[in-house]
Amino acid sequence: GAVVSQHPSRVICKSGTSVKIECRSLDFQATTMFWYRQFPKQSLMLMATSNEGSKATYEQGVEKDKFLINHASLTLSTLTVTSAHPEDSSFYICSASPSGGHNEQFFGPGTRLTVL
Amino acid sequence: QKEVEQDPGPLSVPEGAIVSLNCTYSNSAFQYFMWYRQYSRKGPELLMYTYSSGNKEDGRFTAQVDKSSKYISLFIRDSQPSDSATYLCAMSARGNEKLTFGTGTRLTIIP
After folding, report:
1. What is the C-alpha separation between A69 and A49, in angstroms, rounded?
2. Is A2 on the interface with B (CB under 8 A)?
3. CB contact under 8 A, A105 and B90
4. Are the beta carbons of B41 and A91 separated by less than 8 Å?
5. Contact between residue A31 and residue A52 where contact means Cβ atoms under 8 Å apart
6. Nearest alpha carbon to residue A20 among A89, A75, A82, A98
7. What's the gap in Å between the CA of A42 and the closest CA on chain B?
8. Do A107 and B36 lie within an 8 Å CB cutoff?
9. Which of A22, A112, B34, B44 is an S-S bond match for B38, by CB 3.0 to 4.6 Å?
10. How far, in Å, CA of B70 to CA of A27, rounded?
């Protein structure tokens, strides 16, 4: 149990385009999901906290207009990188915490974004 | 000073040895503690979850939390080459809130 999926696992896009990444909790409902990015050999950097049915809470320094987050249901959150640039190339990972659970967070497998 | 301190390693030990990984923290409000294992280019995998102080054992893994010392540990017994990965400690004060991570310790088990 407690499986989180991400799609796509890898994406390459041209500079200026937008990319949408999906995060799904497959066998549980998640009121709260989190989005992270990770640079090589570094720890995870929290970008935003996504709550179902409400606006996401962004960490300081993260541009909310560039990284659009939508948490439309208890099993799906999406991150859209708008007008992507090469510096947005990174490993994006989501996590989800089961509603009514013991507060563990389960991570997806990650999405590697490369912007040319 | 970071809220959570973790030795980044790298740490290399021979197969079969006991591995000890540790984190210290400064925020006394933390009460949810987790250890994750992350293989290269993969998402972190939850290994152990502990609420408040105490020990928890799961197979070859034992997690310890000492809130009085603000110190948590993960022990791996009978280490295997497949345990080679980066281990991240993470913690939070309340449930369903963002985690504060350590920097991760890169572990290599030598066959």
Report:
1. 9
2. yes
3. yes
4. yes
5. yes
6. A82
7. 7
8. yes
9. B44
10. 34
